[in-house]
């Protein structure tokens, strides 16, 4: 049975490459397609979550917005894996620094993703699941960064369901004590969907704000200025 197109995606089976970049912001997907890919075809416009397939250095690759939060990336990644045959899913997103050594525009690769989400409850596991990246993609991304002379920090990140917390920075202080590097909102759900399906997933993040100091990038920077992260991800195709 062909489940495509879906309620969330205009694409037909075969329109999407086996490797896809997943920025949360659909305008970042549009920027990548227009500035890095050749022979681009737009395959999705549903809900403004733009999706494109093209070629980067001769390799076929797709890029699509995934929205904000685990529920959103949970839907898009599940469909991409199970209905469109995607094998490598690379989230490229923004994050808030928790570790005091991280600054605006620094790049973090999420080896593991802690979370306050209840997403894993659906699997009825007899314990606490630890969502992690695919080592194959992680190792390759670090090697690419090294070859480019780009400094990256690899470690544990936090995927939070809450953007405006009633506790202020109190909860982030607790995660900081456990060595967590930064906070975002999607990686844990992506890692769990990928693990359950036996495919590869990785999260590459650029620090867009520092909650403890109040520093932050503009919304325009979040769309177009995180090119080092984009280039590492594109090389993974």
From TrEMBL:
Site (Important for catalytic activity): 222
Molecular-function GO terms, alphabetical: purine-nucleoside phosphorylase activity; uridine phosphorylase activity
Source organism superkingdom: Bacteria
Record's keyword terms, sorted: Glycosyltransferase, Transferase
The keyword Transcription regulation appears for this protein: no
Keyword Manganese carried by entry: no
Top-level EC class as recorded in UniProt: transferase
Annotated active site: 209
Enzyme Commission number(s) from the entry: 2.4.2.1
Its biological purpose: Catalyzes the reversible phosphorolytic breakdown of the N-glycosidic bond in the beta-(deoxy)ribonucleoside molecules, with the formation of the corresponding free purine bases and pentose-1-phosphate.
Protein name per UniProt: Purine nucleoside phosphorylase DeoD-type
Organism lineage string: Bacteria, Bacillati, Bacillota, Clostridia, Peptostreptococcales
